[in-house]
Amino acid sequence: EVQLVESGGGLVQPGGSLKLSCAASGFPFSxxxxxxxxxxxxxxxxxxxxxxxGSTPMYYADSVKGxxxxxxxxxxxTLTLQLNSLNAEDTGMYYCAKCPATAYDPANLARMCPRGQxxxxxxxx
Length: 125
Fold this sequence. Notes:
By secondary structure, the protein is mainly beta. Helix content is about 5%, strand content about 45%. The chain has 1 helix and 10 strands. The chain has one helix at about 110, and strands at about 5, 10, 20-25, 35-40, 45-50, 60, 70-75, 80-85, 90-95, 120-125. The chain is globular and about 40 Å long.
């Protein structure tokens, strides 16, 4: 059974940083593209970062490029997202997903990308 458990979210001031982690189990982690997907309040799912096998390639949504960094540790089956220079538009639920999210239409992310329960990020002063 695929299990993805996200952690690290919280309340942070604009300009601040957070580090999100995802513990994966139940599948050969190193064999899969992994993604971070988020859902802002009242909006649909959007992919924000994708990392390939052996950490290549890496893709970022324009909205987070230069501020967020995705990484993976295949030894410990862990996916990480470093969030810097956070702003209010980054508020949302962040999900770790077992899929190459860029391959799918956003409307299909919920169906095509198994994900965890999410971790909440709130950017507010």
